[in-house]
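Quick check before the chapter quiz. The format below is the same one you will see on the exam, so make sure you can read both the input and the output lines.
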Amino acid sequence: MAEQVGSVADFYSPEPIAVPRLGEPADVSRLLLFLASSDASFITGSEYVIDGGLVLGPALQAETA
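Here is the expected output.
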């Protein structure tokens, strides 16, 4: 049996990412509901990255004068 070591929040800080928060299940389910609806009837062969900008790398910080 695997040992539980903690949650993602214990090891990951979303602070430098474009959307500075951890993702929620609702973030994914909203997209799935949209894609299953008639509003998405013209969408074909698309990929959706639901990661708050994680793959983009750290967000640039605004310069303070």
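If your answer matched, good. DSSP finds one helix and no strands in the chain.
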